[in-house]
Amino acid sequence: MSQLILVLGGIRSGKSQFACQLADQLSQEVAVIVTCIPQDEEMKARIKEHRLKRPEHWQTIEVPKEIRPHLQEKEVILIDCLNMFISNLLLDGLTPETILEKISSLSEEISKKKDGWVIIVSNEVGSCLVPTNKLARVFTDLLGKANQIMATAANEVYLLVAGIPVKIKESISNV
Q1: Cross-strand partners of 165
Q2: Per-residue model confidence as pLDDT tens digits over 75-101
């Protein structure tokens, strides 16, 4: 049975780098599922920065909207990131209910992974202000609920604060 690790944090908190360190400690067989669709030069530069920090032998799978078929690729699957995945689905016109169904389905599919680990990176939105824009409110509500779904299913949950990981959940089976 696989293990799920959720890594949460704010923008530039160090969550992706920490997730990569975890993955590297767990196995040499790592596939990174990248959900970002680069829309501008600044985003392309961020993607390049992330890629340069990962070992070259890791497999990179760029799938902005369909993660589930790739969960068996390697012993360790690193999904970076849940917030971009949700954003992509929302901008495609999916309803919040449909998106949450997809998140629940993804969580169930992860639990079916034969062995290994799945590490999910996501932005923590619980500490942010309520946005004034309706689309932004829908997004933050969705991401907050999605993070809760994944945190409930996770064996371990980390919160990154200023680059420092704080373990906020560890399953009893890991103690």
Answers
A1: 160
A2: 999 999 999 999 999 999 999 999 999
Distance CA 51, CA 26 (A): 19
Which of 21-35, 95-109, 136-150, 159-173 is the least confident region?
159-173
Q: Which residue type is seen at 59?
A: Q
pLDDT in tens, 21-42: 999 999 999 999 999 988 889 8
Give this prediction's pTM.
Answer: 0.93
- CB proximity list for 19: less than 8 A, separation 6 or greater: 5, 7, 78, 80, 119, 121
Q: How far is residue 142 CA from its own chain's centroid?
A: 14
Catalytic site residue 50?
A: yes
Active-site residue identified among 50, 54, 74, 102: 50
Q: Which of 60, 62, 64, 67 is nearest to 30 (CA)?
A: 60
CA-wise closest residue to 7 among 164, 141, 133:
164
